[in-house]
Amino acid sequence: MTTRFLTLLAVLLTALAAVPALAAAPKLRAVATVGMLTDAVRIIGGDRVEVTGLMGEGVDPHLYKASPGDLRLLSTADIVFAVGLHLEGRMVDALEKLSKSRRIVLVGQQLDHTLLRSDEGDSHDPHIWFDVALWSKALDAVEKGLIDADASGAETYKANAKKYREDLAALHEWVKTEIATIPKPQRVLVTAHDAFGYFSRAYDIEVLAIQGVSTDSEASLRDINALVDTLVKRKIPAVFVESSVPRKAIDALREGAAARNHTVTVGGELFSDAMGKSGTDEGTYIGMVKHNVHAIVHALKPAESPAPTSNPTPTK
Q: Measured between alpha carbons, how far is 256 from 228 in angstroms, rounded to an integer?
C-alpha cells in the first residue's frame, strides 16, 4: 500500500510540475499627477493598486510638461488620476488625447462647483487640498474610479476610503484648533502665489500672495511694492517660501520692507503644490498639512502663546 501511494504521489508531483504556476492576480496600474493625489490613490487602493506619481518633490504642476517617458507611462496605465481645474495646465492636451483610450479621472472637476473658489474669469482655483474637508470630498472620485476600473476590489476600496476619511476629519478639526490659537490680528499668511485660498476660507486666516492662483506668469514690480506697503503698514513679521516656487519674489519683499526699516523674517518653507521627499512624513498628505500648520503657528503666534498640540492622526 505504501509503495503504491508513493508511486501515485510521484506521478502527481510530476504532473503538477509540468503545469505553469498560477500567477498572482495583476495589480491595477494607476498613474497620478501631483503627490497629494498619488498618496490618496496609494492609501485607498491598498495592495490591489500599483500607483506611480508623475510629479515629485519640489515640482510645480502649473509649469509641468509631460516628458516622452511620462506619455509612455500614461498610455500603459489602467487608470489615470489628475486634479484638473487647469492645475496641470500644460498637460491638458495630453490628458484630453489620452481620454480616448484610457480611463481618466479629474477629481477636482467632479466636485460640486459651488464649493470651489472662483478664479479670474470662469475658471476655478485648483488648490482644493488646502481645505482638508473639501479634499476628503474630492476623494470620492478616487474611490469611484478605482471601483469602476476594478469592481472585484470594491469592498477593499470602500473600507480604505472610509478609514482615510476618518483620519482626514480628525486632521481638519486639528488644523482649525491650531490656527485659532494665533491671535486674529497676527493671523496673516504671506506667500509667493495664491495657493492657500481654500486654507484661508476653511481655517479663518487671511492670505496675501504676490502672484495669482497660477505660477505661469512673473510677479510684477507693482505687485511686490503693493505687498511691501501692506507688510510695513500692518507690521507683518513673517513671510513664507514655497517648496515648489522660486523664492526670489519673497526675497524682494523682505528687501523692500527692510529698506523701509521693517524687518520681515522667513517663517519657514511651506509645501504648496508639491509634497515633501518620498519616505518622510512630509512626503504624505497628512504629514504635509501638519508641517505647514506647525510652521505657520510657530512663525505667527506670539512667543508667550502655547505651542501647537501633538499630531492628531497617523501619517501613514
A: 6
Are the beta carbons of 195 and 61 closer than 8 angstroms? no
Query: What's the pTM value of the predicted model, to 2 decimals?
Result: 0.86
Find residue 239's DSSP bridge partners. Answer: 266
CA proximity to 52, closest of 85, 81, 15 = 81
Nearest residue to 147 via CA among 75, 36, 45, 53: 45
Confidence of residue 215 (pLDDT cuts 50, 70, 90): low
Given a contact cutoff of 8 angstroms between Cβ atoms, the answer to whether 215 and 60 are in contact is yes
Q: Where are the alpha helices (DSSP H) in 235-271?
A: 248-258
Is residue 112 scored above 70 in pLDDT? yes
Instruction: Tell me the C-alpha to C-alpha distance, in Å, between residue 304 and each of 25, 65, 181.
Output: 58, 47, 11
Asked if residue 213 lies in contact with residue 193, where contact means CB atoms within 8 angstroms, the answer is yes
Domains plus CATH for the chain? 28-165 (3.40.50.1980), 176-300 (3.40.50.1980)
CA–CA separation, 85 vs 118, rounded Å? 11
Could you tell me if 154 and 49 are in contact, meaning their C-beta atoms sit under 8 angstroms apart?
Answer: no
312 forms beta bridges with: none
The most confident of 105-119, 159-173, 187-201, 236-250, by mean pLDDT: 159-173
Q: Residues with Cβ < 8 Å from 88, sequence gap 6 or more? A: 33, 34, 61, 64, 82, 95
3-state secondary structure of 85: coil
